[in-house]
Amino acid sequence: MAPTALICDTEPWKDLKEHVNQINKTHLRDLMNDVERCQSMMVEYDGMVLDYSRQRARLDTMDKLFKLAEAAHLRQKIDRMYSGEHINSTENRSVLHIALRAPRDKAIYSDGKNVVPDVWHVLDKINDFSERVRSGSWVGATGKALKDVVAVGIGGSFLGPLFVHTALQTDPEAADSAKGRQLRFLANVDPVDVARNISGLNPETTLVVVVSKTFTTDETMLNARTMREWISSALGPQAVAKHMVAVSTNLTLVEKFGIDPANTFAFWDWVGGRYSVCSAVGVLPLSLQYGFPIVEKFLNGASNIDEHFYSTPFDKNLPVILGLLSVWNVSFLGYPARAILPYSQALEKFAPHIQQVSMESNGKGVSIDGIPLPFETGEIDFGEPGTNGQHSFYQLIHQGRVIPCDFIGAIKSQQPVYLKGELVSNHDELMSNFFAQPDALAYGKSPEQLLHDNVPDHLIPHKTFSGNRPSLSLLLPSLNAYNIGQLLAIYEHRIAVEGFTWGINSFDQWGVELGKVLATQVRKQLHLSRTKGEPVQSFNFSTTSLLKKFLEVCFC
Ligand code: F6P
């Protein structure tokens, strides 16, 4: 495709820049009085409700954002993604995580080949393998059933599966099906993470799943070797075949490592690491823990949103609305961060996962054609479940910096608890905060109100809340495997919408390379100093001094 103009040079972008002056004259207190506006900013889909009336936007703002989407060729870019074009141009790859959860009878093409049968070939293999492990027909080297799984992987080969596992753990149906089993994740090369993850496990009853798209990631490979040693020193080297399996696109390196190709679960280069939770990366460990039928429901939820994203008009399309609002907040209102605040302990690993999906995807400095961007892209994502976050960083959000917030809640709790004599159930207590916080942010509290409440003069500045702080609320019907899949796909596509609008490549990650190269030089130096006593050289003063200090302590 011919290079495209930068989005900031288009009329809709300039119009939105102008429009900010209008919005700056409004306050959410007033915008919230416009019932027609609020009604239009509430979208319902499949039992979910998205309420974005507390965004600093009017209905004409939305019209302007949809015009921006048109100028960015959003429709065409979505079509190109779904039709398997190589939209990840710097790596010359399709971007087809949607194929990972497509129904069996769907056809999705990459390089002229329908990839859905390949996807289902692997899913069927996972279904079969996980069933054999769970039922005890696949046993370890000493004949014992494998009831514990350690998944070794990092980044996209860890964060997504951990999020889904944490979310499913307390779902009654999933929990029931996981009885007597454990799933652990070993990600960090820090020996402490190794110690924590093998603590209390017996090699005889443990299956290790090495998860790495490239099978070259230093941390994962070192941890995989550590786990191989843990197995073989306890059970003998022949036990590795029964106790270690792999998920990778690099089948040659997996075999070289010593894992039987028959016990390897493939995926493809058209799946980005951070978009891989619906591939064997997530499906294998999760199926071992919960059984494939539960994981299939999660895939169905994600697939449902893929269809919604593809076919729903933009003004009712959840990922499109969310993505455009993010662009509005970042590029026009100038808010660089976003807080992800699930009122659900089960979603405690959602923000860490979205951090990678969002920040690795959209933290870019050049357009997809390599032109330096005169505006910043991406947002700083962080978050904690409510109400815990309220007792941590909300002070800053209420009276310090303005940070657009995503409030996520569920109508039905996974674990309803009602104590006799209490005013409300635990879930109602939790959700009271989910409903109250967005209004506190939007309305604030004025000095006049405080005066009226007889607050002493000297405390009025301290107790004033300026309000006008944007948020949106996403209310899910419940938090089962299906809804968790939907939530994942909403955010994945939202992030794509942002990147498509900014005109960047959201699917490469060159920014993580430089640090890896420098670490290789340091590793080499540490090895030479430790084994041959060679002095530290070729680093700057600062790094040399720190390395010398580090090497003073004996490595034993
Ligand atoms: O940190 C960079 C990265 O390449 C991520 O994009 C990826 O998810 C992670 O490393 C792990 O890579 P792999 O699955 O190849 O081990």
Automatic annotation (TrEMBL):
Q: In which compartments does the protein localize? A: Cytoplasm
Give GO cellular component annotations, separated by semicolons: cytosol
InterPro entries per the UniProt record, alphabetical: G6P_Isomerase, G6P_Isomerase_C, Phosphoglucose_isomerase_CS, SIS_dom_sf, SIS_PGI_1, SIS_PGI_2
- Where is this protein primarily located? cytoplasm
Which Gene Ontology BP terms does the record give? gluconeogenesis; glucose 6-phosphate metabolic process; glycolytic process
Entries under Gene3D superfamilies matching the protein: 1.10.1390.10, Glucose-6-phosphate isomerase like protein, domain 1
What's the Enzyme Commission number for this chain?
Answer: 5.3.1.9
Q: Which reaction does it catalyse?
A: alpha-D-glucose 6-phosphate = beta-D-fructose 6-phosphate
Q: Which UniProt keywords apply?
A: Cytoplasm, Gluconeogenesis, Glycolysis, Isomerase
Subunit structure, as described in the record: Homodimer.
Protein name per UniProt = Glucose-6-phosphate isomerase
Source organism (scientific name) = Canna indica
